[in-house]
Amino acid sequence: MPEFLKLLTPQNALNLWFENIPFSFPKYEEIKTTDGLGRVTAEDIKALHPMPSFSKSTVDGYAVMAKDTYGASDSLPCYIKLTGEILMGRQPDRMLVAGTAMLIHTGGMLPEGADAVVMLEHTQSSRSDEIEVCRAVAPLENIIQVGEDVRQGEVVIPAGTRIRPAEIGGLMAFGIQTIKAAWKPKVGLISTGDEVVPPESTPTIAQVRDINTYSLEALVKEHGGEAIRYGIVPDRPAELQKVLHSALSECDVVMITAGSSASARDMTSKVIQEAGKPGVIVHGINIKPGKPAILAVCDGKPVIGLPGNPVSALVIAWLFLPALLERMQCLQTTIIKKQIAARLTINFASLAGREDYIPVKLTMEDGIYQAEPIFFKSNLIFNLVKADGLMVIPADANGLNAGDMVQVLFF
C-alpha cells in the first residue's frame, strides 16, 4: 500500500493514476443527432456529398463572366445585357453567355457559364434589360464553389469529437439523423458521514445537508457522464464496503466524499485498498484546497476519494474527473479550461511548493480584469457560489503582490 499523504503535484498524481487505469475504446450507442450535444462521436463521420453541392453567390448582385467587367470603374462603367433573374431554391433555366448577366440573390445557384458575381451596390440600372457595372470583378469573386467547404468522402467529424452546436448543424446539413456516440461513463456517488442528511431533511443542530452528491452530479453531467447516487453511508467500514462493492459492480467510476483525511476515523482509504487491485495509487496531493484526496484503481475501475468539505471536494473533482471522463470516452481533443489573465488587487500569502486554487471575484478597471481573492473556508460552499473563478498560485510562488498578473480559471 502506498504511503498515505505522501504529496504529489496534481499533474504527477494524474499521470500516475492514469498509468494504472486500463483505458480501452468505449462501448457506443446509436442516438438521435438532435440528442447529441455534449456526446462524443464513436466513429469518423464522412461527407455524403460535396458542401456546398452547387456553386452559389455570397452577395446580392449579378452573375457575370468576370472578363466582361474588366476595366469597369465609376468614371468608365461597362454595360451588360440583363437576361433574367435566378429565383431562390431554383436551378437557373438558362446558361449565361458572354456579354450577359442575371440577377442573383445571396445563396442563389450560379448559372452555368458564370464565374463571378458583381455586388448590387457596384451597379446601376440603365435600362430594363441592361446594367451598368462600375467596378470590375475577378474570377470566383463573391461565389462559393462546389465542395469549397468539404469534399465528398472527406472526414468532417473525426471519432472522439465532443459534439457542439456547430457539429449538430453540420450533421443536419448532410441529413444525418443518427450518430454513433460513446456510452456515457457511469459515475457512482457515495457520501459518508454520520452528520450528513439528505437535502430534503431538516437537520438537527449538529447535522448538515448533503451538498457534495449534487454538486458532483452536476459536474459529471457537464462532462458527459451519467451520475448514479448511492446515498449517504454512516461512518462504519462494513457499510461503506457494501455500498462500494455495489457501486464498483454497476459503475465505471466511483467517487466517495469524506473520510479521506489522515485521522483516527479515516476509513475510506482502507476500504478502497481492500476493494480491488492495485488499490490506492495516490493519497495526498500538494494542493490547497483538497490535500488529502485519494486516487485509486480497484480491479480496473477508477475511484476518487474526496475530502468532505464542499469546496475541497468540488475543486479536486473539477481538476481530475473531467480529464478521466475525456479519456474514458476516447475524446481526442482535450477540453481546454477557460482562463483569463487578471491583476491581483491585494498582497496574497502562499506556501511555496504547493499549488493554490483561490476563489476570486472579478471586476473590470481600465480594460483589465481585477481579481479580488475571497478568503474562504473549505466547508463553506457559498465561497464558490460568490466566486467568478479560481486564481491559480503556482507551486514555485512564495506569495503574490498586489498588481501581479494571475491566471483565473473558470470552473
Automatic annotation (TrEMBL):
Coiled coil spans: none
GO biological process, one term: Mo-molybdopterin cofactor biosynthetic process
SUPFAM superfamilies on file: MoeA C-terminal domain-like, MoeA N-terminal region -like, Molybdenum cofactor biosynthesis proteins
GO cellular component, one term: cytosol
Catalytic activity: adenylyl-molybdopterin + molybdate = Mo-molybdopterin + AMP + H(+)
Gene Ontology molecular function: metal ion binding; molybdopterin molybdotransferase activity
The protein's role, per its UniProt record: Catalyzes the insertion of molybdate into adenylated molybdopterin with the concomitant release of AMP.
InterPro entries: MoaB/Mog-like_dom_sf (IPR036425), MoaB/Mog_dom (IPR001453), MoCF_biosynth_CS (IPR008284), MoeA-like (IPR038987), MoeA_C_domain_IV (IPR005111), MoeA_C_domain_IV_sf (IPR036688), MoeA_linker/N (IPR005110), MoeA_linker/N_sf (IPR036135)
Homology family: Belongs to the MoeA family.
Keyword Iron: no
Protein name, per record: Molybdopterin molybdenumtransferase
Cofactor requirements of the protein: Mg(2+)
Pfam families associated with the record: MoCF_biosynth (PF00994), MoeA_C (PF03454), MoeA_N (PF03453)
UniProt keywords, alphabetically: Magnesium, Metal-binding, Molybdenum, Molybdenum cofactor biosynthesis, Transferase
Record EC number: 2.10.1.1
Boundaries of every MoaB/Mog domain copy: 188-327
Pathway: Cofactor biosynthesis; molybdopterin biosynthesis
